[in-house]
Known about the structure:
Nucleotidyltransferase, domain 5; five-stranded mixed β-sheet; homodimer
Amino acid sequence: MNSSDAVVLAVDVGGTTMKGAVVTVGGETVVTATRPTPATDIVRALVDLLEHLAAEAATRGLSVESAGVVTPGMVDEETGTVLFASNLNWRDVPLLAQLRSLLPFPIAVGHDVRAAGLAEKLLGAARGSENYVHIPIGTGVAAALVSSGRTITGALGATGEFGHIPVIAGGEPCVCGQNGCLEVYASGGGVARRYVAAGGEALSTRQIVAQLGVDPIADEVWGDAVRVLAQGLTIMTLLLDPDIIVLGGGFSQAGAALLDPLRVGLANGLAWRDAPRVVQSQLGSEAGRIGASVLAMQVAGHEARLAEWAVAH
Amino acid sequence: MNSSDAVVLAVDVGGTTMKGAVVTVGGETVVTATRPTPATDIVRALVDLLEHLAAEAATRGLSVESAGVVTPGMVDEETGTVLFASNLNWRDVPLLAQLRSLLPFPIAVGHDVRAAGLAEKLLGAARGSENYVHIPIGTGVAAALVSSGRTITGALGATGEFGHIPVIAGGEPCVCGQNGCLEVYASGGGVARRYVAAGGEALSTRQIVAQLGVDPIADEVWGDAVRVLAQGLTIMTLLLDPDIIVLGGGFSQAGAALLDPLRVGLANGLAWRDAPRVVQSQLGSEAGRIGASVLAMQVAGHEARLAEWAVAH
Lengths: 313, 313
């Protein structure tokens, strides 16, 4: 078999959908498949999707070398155990062991946000950086932290809970049970909720941003979001000293309306040092799935070939 | 020469004093010497101290293998350059190159707080942990961050500026030029200043803690300090997921008056995950100097022998 016929499978398991793909070891995506995440028996549905992807590969004469699966929550990447994932209603799920017992190829299990961070480094906005932070901002907020080229995973696989850092003492309540968390103010979910609470209609982040300058409620809610996010990025910079901060997720689509005031706020928050660069993600919602394929390449022993992916993009 | 005659030199350069020692490669401290840090020509005074330590070693028939020097500020440990150290009035000082040109043995230059963190892991309160945070709290506050056994150094050698993370939006001014920094409230300097500002006398942290329960100003200022520090440790835990947080410096001498309410505050701040252990430093003000000797052991190729130090302690 020619190595150009070798492929890896990748699935990004989210609370709403499971995004899968078949990717050649040279970095070409040949099949994608997205399925809804069921309320129960998620592992069964995940195995179905992986088997579907493997069958799609087989019909094309492609040989599956490995699979990479990424999930949200607290993930112990060494044992492949998901300690806790509220979106999936999982607690202590030995995902890697379960998948290994059901599938015939090597498998890697990782954390969605950390894997997305790897993808942004390999192919996206953090290319070339050894010290960066990747912050996807959607309904909620998370972060992947990379220092000296290595992902910071922590004692329990629970690093980067940036959305829940307490930034406003005695602030508004968060779904997590605390008050004043960053994502209460600075997330798609937070901005939409606070816009309605202040008397506005139910609008998306995009729609609220479109009202800036003409709608005082939009100005106020967005101003709070930018101010709190700048405070969070200041904290991140002072603790971790990244040279680049990549903002992802739907929220980052706001572009200049977000990035311009955010850069000013971050620079003002750093009295005695320069601010790191703050840029928008290049891979967007594909970053998690691409990250899963990177993990699959690593578990298959094809890490060296990832250099080709960087060139191809 | 017997390897038991081999020693390393260690100096912890602080804003007030330079603490030096001669330490055998087996981990025994045979000489210590502390000198005031001069206002100018600090490198000259540092070289004098190292030469004095080397002479003390020579009179005992001991052979100097290397020296380790740690300093505060932003330190690029690869090049041995101190990018900025306000206490020493240094900017872009090529310390390693200067010391190498003046001294005949291998030299390592490191960051005082990160080196102290290494010492706490080897010999102190973080023994056995691969994911910990060491936070010396004195006049100001800093932090050494270790993940998967590796010190997080960042893009500019400027990680761990925990004392300056903004925790109270629009809070009291800090010497750094910002407002609402953690150390404005939760440090030896901050507590003493706020106690006076609230109408109290000029007292030390120790004296203020002794007034708890009988002096409402002490209760208020200390309560603020604990609350802000708990908020900071919550942020640290959510971002970095350590399994142990080691508190050092004079402030941590408060013992239970600090640790008991702090542990409660941290647990309350972490809605969905367990808190890491919070403990007091075991090495205290010696941690930086011991860390410098660890760096000296590494540069001399004696890293394997550090295992003996752990046993000896």
